[in-house]
UniProtKB/TrEMBL annotation:
SUPFAM superfamilies for the chain: Tryptophan synthase beta subunit-like PLP-dependent enzymes
Span of the signal peptide: none
Top-rank taxon, per record: Bacteria
Matches recorded under Pfam families: PALP (PF00291)
Protein name from the UniProt record: Threonine/serine dehydratase
Cofactor(s) needed: pyridoxal 5'-phosphate
Keywords: Lyase, Pyridoxal phosphate
Organism: Acidicapsa dinghuensis
PANTHER family tied to this protein: L-THREONINE DEHYDRATASE CATABOLIC TDCB, THREONINE DEHYDRATASE, MITOCHONDRIAL-RELATED
Length: 327
């Protein structure tokens, strides 16, 4: 496995990424969220307010804005259930590159439609992330596209790390930062930025217990892969990746303190709390960090100031209605 010292992004790299993407991604606000029963001061980092409704624009833009003219002319390709797809499509359109997206058949219709609306070509495969990767490799070999990986890429990690940079810039004495984790792009980048700027802060990853491969990898110290039939059970479609990326795992082992898992019922309750308290609309993947604060305080360290990243807001209207009206 690649060693941590070979893959860790530096603060200089992260700051360069922030300057690079400033014209495409936005600095999202921190919204105070006094959740009933949750101690300390809590802010939500509203990545749901990015132009594509997700943090994924940060990494995609950082990668694509560094392509050469020849690479732009060849076009880009990625494999994604939706949010990274939109990030790649949005950034590719900004530089005039063709974008091809390999998506699973169970990707939310709202995310597929948004990706198509941004001008990307969508190729559909089965539900396993391994199928997406195989089809992407096949199309790269056939057409010469440039791959924009969803998470296991230094430029992607550095782009996502700009989220952590903004958190510490806004709250220099933050004690606790919680990030969703799937393939590990957001968690690895955020943790790298936060811990290099504020070593005293604790960074916690959060994922659904139905897709708990990252928690198992963190606990055992070895990368594990969960089968798609397990990870696809969670309503948090953005967190169904079957394994952490190698580079991401190196960052997580270096900078992350723990990974907590939450239940589907806790995710639904957290979505309702975010809407009611912060007036933000989260997708399930974006609500897991709030679920950890609400229901897993015993697994978190004491804190005075906490930031929970709401990673995205691309939730289907019918799902949101069901969550808000259900128990």
């Amino acid at each position: 496995m690649t060693t941590a010292t070979e893959t860790l992004v530096t603060l200089d790299t992260i700051r360069a990424a922030a300057e690079r993407i400033a014209g495409i991604a936005v600095k999202t606000p921190l919204v105070r969220a006094p959740f009933p029963g949750v101690g300390g001061e809590v802010w939500l980092k509203a990545e749901s307010l990015q132009p594509i409704g997700s943090f994924k624009l940060r990494g995609a833009a950082n990668k694509i804005l560094q392509l050469t003219a020849d690479e732009v002319a060849r076009g880009v390709i990625t494999y994604s259930s939706g949010n990274h797809a939109q990030g790649v499509a949005y950034a590719a359109r900004a530089v005039g590159a063709k974008a091809v997206i390999v998506m699973p058949s169970n990707a939310p219709a709202i995310k597929r439609a948004a990706t198509l609306a941004l001008g990307a070509e969508v190729v559909e495969v089965g539900v396993a992330s391994s199928e997406r990767l195989a089809k992407s490799d096949e199309l790269v070999a056939k057409h010469g596209y440039v791959t924009v990986a969803p998470y296991d890429d230094e430029a992607i990690i550095a782009g996502q790390a700009t989220c952590g940079l903004e958190i510490v810039e806004a709250i220099p004495d933050v004690d606790l930062v919680l990030s969703p984790v799937s393939g590990g792009g957001l968690l690895s980048g955020t943790a790298a930025a936060v811990r290099q700027l504020r070593p005293e802060a604790v960074v916690v990853g959060v994922e659904p217990e139905l897709a708990g491969d990252a928690a198992e990898s963190f606990r055992t110290g070895e990368l594990v892969t969960w089968p798609a039939e397990l990870t696809s059970r969670t309503m948090a479609d953005g967190l169904r990746t079957q394994s952490l990326g190698v580079r991401n795992f190196a960052h997580i082992r270096a900078f992350v303190d723990r990974i907590v898992t939450v239940t589907e019922a806790e995710i639904r309750a957290a979505m309702r709390a975010i809407v009611a308290t912060a007036r933000l609309v989260p997708e399930p993947s974006g609500a897991v960090t709030t679920a950890a604060l609400m229901f897993h305080a015993h697994e978190l360290p004491p804190y005075r100031k906490a930031v929970a990243i709401v990673s995205g807001g691309n939730v289907a209207p019918e799902m949101l209605a069901d969550v808000l009206t259900g128990a």
